Amino acid sequence: MTLQTVSSLVVPETFSRWLDSRGLIYQLLIDFFGRKPSLSLVAQWSRNRQMSIAAEMTEGGRELKRYLCSQEPGELPKVCEKENLEYKRLMNEGAVGSFVPREAAQLGRSEEFCNVLSDVYASAGIVFKKCSGEADDHIAIELEFMAVLHERMLFNSFSVRSAMELLEIQETFLEEHLLRWTPQFCDRLNAATDSKLYLGLSHMLEEFLPQDLQMLRAWKSSLENSAAAMA
């Protein structure tokens, strides 16, 4: 999928590759943290040329790319069966010690904390259709929130002001939610598995999110400077 910005948003070359890649990275993380790694899912991402480009943004992405792309077609069913079992072991709440893929559990908060996330999503006009009954603070749901806002920012922003509003929501969500608990989540995932798939995903996640926040801040500053110059 080729991402295009609306004509009212001027994107400097410095940010274009990041904007073209970040949606793909969020979607890959959502897919593998949110559902079992089926044969079609693994084949889809291992053959995705744009994902190969996006993977180069982090060492974890390159690690994941090497693993997915090194599999012979005839070996994929066996690989998927193995990673499918690992997904079930890791993602069933309480199945692997202190490893739970939810913000409340990682930060020691009560179940009512999900109401906070629900209000955040609602304030942005987003309602999720959850096929597997995921909690609002599940890693895949929080990442999907970022992915939806990213697409809105690129495709539905008809002014710098509306783009800035969506950018600021993403910046705040990273600061107040994802980056507060995913470092601990990744540390525990790294200790809980020897799967090359889930280690690659974990390394990619822990590298990408801080980079993404840094780029959001830099682009925000660029937009502010451009607006000031035109005033």
TrEMBL record:
Top-level division of the source organism's lineage: Bacteria
InterPro entries, alphabetized: DMSO/NO3_reduct_chaperone, TorD-like_sf, TorD/DmsD_chaperones
Pfam families linked: Nitrate_red_del
Keyword hit for Zinc: no
Range of residues in the leader sequence: none
Keywords: Chaperone
Name by which UniProt lists this protein: Dehydrogenase
Upper taxonomic lineage: Bacteria, Bacillati, Bacillota, Bacilli, Bacillales
